[in-house]
Design brief:
five-stranded antiparallel beta sheet, 206 residues, alpha+beta, 7 helices
Length: 206
């Protein structure tokens, strides 16, 4: 009896330990494509909801979109990559301030573009995983044009999070890294914060 009890206890211990082992290994039960598809699908669902198209619902709808996107986009990682070497000397408080400013800036900058959705179709072309990094290639199609959109993700605590989008060959992170570098070199880091608050950072024409 005691041996049977010990055997069952050992089996239970292994079963209970497996999820922990998986988590420590950085394994994700979702594929990067599933993450992107789920996030994009939820964004489209909100945009197509007739009850949310009322102009009076504009702000609540925008907040809903921001929440969906923030759940799978790592703004801290995007901020770190966009600031590059200028991220290292910042204190934790300064990093937190920048992340919040950059997040608000991006939300406002791209809200109108997202809200201009007009029934375009999204095709999921391929997925590539290298260790804890992945890239999901998609294509946004309308009746007149097809635009390549690639999502770059990394695995953090067992979940895939996006940190960059490449639209028609142009990286969001590289675009802002270049502009942030110019502002800091020409003026200062504080000037960059000022421009982010005032929404006066100019993005690439393409």
């Amino acid at each position: 009896m005691r041996q049977d009890w010990l055997a069952r206890s050992a089996t239970c211990s292994v079963i209970l330990a497996c999820p922990l082992a998986v988590a420590w290994a950085g394994f994700s039960f979702e594929s990067p494509t599933e993450v992107v598809r789920g996030t994009v699908g939820e964004v489209i669902r909100i945009l197509e909801d007739p009850q949310l198209k009322d102009p009076a619902k504009r702000l609540p709808r925008r907040r809903m979109l921001e929440e969906v996107i923030a759940a799978r986009f790592d703004y801290a990682e995007m901020s770190k990559r966009s600031l590059a070497a200028h991220w290292t000397p910042l204190t934790d408080a300064e990093r937190g301030e920048f992340v919040e400013l950059f997040k608000s800036f991006l939300s406002d900058r791209y809200a109108e573009k997202i809200e201009g959705y007009g029934g375009q179709q999204v095709s999921y072309l391929s997925e590539r995983i290298e260790g804890t990094f992945a890239e999901v290639r998609t294509e946004l199609r309308s009746s007149k044009v097809a635009i390549p959109m690639d999502y770059r993700l990394f695995l953090n605590a067992g979940r895939w999070h996006a940190y960059d989008i490449i639209v028609d060959g142009v990286s969001l992170v590289k675009n802002y890294r270049s502009q942030f570098e110019k502002i800091i070199r020409a003026d200062s880091y504080q000037e960059l914060l000022k421009r982010l608050r005032e929404r006066t950072v100019v993005e690439s024409k393409k």
